Amino acid sequence: MAKIKVGINGYGTIGKRVASAVAAQDDMELVGVTKTRPNFEALNAVRKGYDIYVPDSSVEAFRDAGVKIAGTLKDMYAKVDIVVDCTPGNVGEMYRDQYKEAGVKAIFQGGEDHALTGISFNSTANYSESWGAQLSRVVSCNTTGLLRTLYPIDKKYKIENAYVTIVRRAADPGDSKNGPINGLEPSVSLPTHHGPDVQSIMPWLNISTMAIKASTTLMHVHTVVAQLSQPASTDEIKEIFRKAPRVRLVRSKDGIKTTAQIMELARDLGRDRSDMYEIIVWEDGIKVVGNTLYYYQAVHQESDVIPENIDCIRSMCKAESDPCASVRKTNAALGITKE
């Protein structure tokens, strides 16, 4: 079977990670990536051997900087089966029209609204919904995190209500423009968008979300309270998480008490860019009281959606009909293990 030819539009925080993940798959070929400016990320793409494609308006800037390009965006569209759009938010509609005109499939990220594509994607919860689709959208890092843990619980115990508070990182590590620097900033527009985003994939779930920005760059932390429709034990919930393919249990008594220590674990695992693709759940922070479940989880905002993008490529290009098989293949290529 011919490899799926993939282009990455946007080579920033998410785009460069998707590019590396695509390059690691034996059933995919990375055709190239796009940049609008010849900055250090463009130079790093060149060092990795990736072909660079640019908008027409950027051709001169790249030539003046001596950075070799393989062509324009339209040239890349002509060579690929699918584009993973990792451009900044609010430009999705323009690019959607370009992809349609070029006749290529496209995946958007969670910064765009569900309405842009009409389909949102999660590997475990609704893999088949994107099967053969022209357009799809991988939901945001926080939504991906909630789906990874809530969906398998709901599947077995049926969640009547879920209440989530998200303590958000204020900026990515490489971002020096955002804040807060020294404070906590509540999202006063309530409920926050995260609940409706989860419902774009689990429309039956009653979920309410609140969020607070914190002066950290490392990860998001979720506090989750779920009311179950039938009794469950703490050990049964732990077993669900142990079996979930992209959930990793850690214990505070083993020294993993903070998000800083989680990221240190990712470094020790030798991950590409020290990424933690899994959703981290504190095993000793899981508790069931009656029909009410409590737990904490941490989300590495730079990387948890990366394996989802890879699985979405396979679904949209009809390369693997079994979601479990795609997840196993992606996990193996990215070094996601339970050990």
**On the 0-100 scale, what is the average pLDDT?**
97
Global morphology:
globular
Give the topology string: H per helix, E per strand. Answer: EHEHEHEHEHEEHEHEEHEEHEHEEEHH
Number of domains: 2
Beta-strand segment tally: 16
Question: Could you describe the 3D structure shown?
Answer:
By secondary structure, this protein is α/β, with parallel strands linked by helices. It folds into two domains: 4-139 and 305-334, NAD(P)-binding Rossmann-like Domain (Rossmann fold, 3-Layer(aba) Sandwich); 141-299, Dihydrodipicolinate Reductase, domain 2 (2-Layer Sandwich). It contains twelve helices and 16 strands. The chain has helices spanning 15-23, 40-47, 59-65, 73-77, 92-102, 123-126, 141-157, 194-199, 234-243, 259-268, 306-316, 323-334, and strands spanning 4-9, 28-34, 52-54, 71-72, 82-85, 105-108, 120-121, 135-138, 159-169, 184-186, 207-214, 220-228, 247-250, 279-282, 287-289, 292-299. The strands form two sheets. Strands 4-3-2-1-5-6-8-7 form an eight-stranded parallel sheet, sandwiched between helices. Strands 9, 10, 11, 12, 13, 14, 15 and 16 form an eight-stranded mixed sheet that branches. Helix 3 links the parallel strand 3 and strand 4 (71-72). Helix 11 crosses helix 12. The longest helix has 17 residues, at 141-157. The model has no long low-confidence stretch (mean pLDDT 97).
